[in-house]
């Protein structure tokens, strides 16, 4: 089924208890309707067959399909579904439900660049066409190595903080705390996805 476009989730009917070892479902193009009613169960059934075959790559692919079908099946009319659905969507976007360490790494790099730009503007060191500011880059990286440091009682007046005009006000604390939380989450997702990639039974 490589490269096929599917309007519905595939339904595998087998007389045997497992898929052939050479079964391949790569590069599928799934339309929106492929995540409708009963789709979650169908994707789960194929995932279980692939698990028996120890086909980790394709098993992970159908795990993503299964979770997307579950998320899309959660009605937005029910407020109790809003938070679980939002968290599920974020997990999909940032790490492909724990299957893509590359996606987590790309989002981590984007986050560092975004927060570096924010810090350069907040400190008054931003300049169009200028060279990358090593002080700002070092400060950004420090939020991963030493997370939530501005929440401590210590005064930020030395090391990577020197020259950035950090006054410890609420906006700096909020920005660095958000940076640390988001970056550490992406690092955790990266290692979880990496572990899955090289998982062996």
Can you describe this structure?
- With 201 residues, the protein is an all-alpha fold.
- The protein folds into 2 domains: 5-73, no CATH class; 105-188, no CATH class.
- 53% of the residues lie in helices and 2% in strands.
- It has helices at residues 39-52, 56-72, 82-95, 101-122, 134-145, 170-197, and strands at residues 5-6, 29-30.
- Strands 1-2 form a two-stranded parallel sheet.
- The protein is elongated, with a radius of gyration of 22 Å.
- The mean pLDDT is 81.
Strand order of the largest sheet: 1-2
Structural class comes to: mainly alpha
Query: What is the number of helices?
Result: 6
Q: Residue ranges: pLDDT <50 for 5 or more in a row?
A: none
- Cα-atom radius of gyration: 22 Å
**Major beta-sheet overview:** 2 strands, parallel
Choose one word for the global shape. elongated
- What fraction, in percent, of the residue positions are helical? 40-55%
How many distinct domains? Answer: 2
Main attributes?
201 residues; 6 helices; 53% helix; mainly alpha; 2 domains; two-stranded parallel sheet
Task: Write a short abstract of this structure.
This protein is an all-alpha fold and 201 residues long.
Describe the protein's topology:
Layout: E1 5-6, E2 29-30, H1 39-52, H2 56-72, H3 82-95, H4 101-122, H5 134-145, H6 170-197
Parallel strand pairs: 1-2
Helix pairs in contact: 1-2, 2-3, 4-5, 4-6
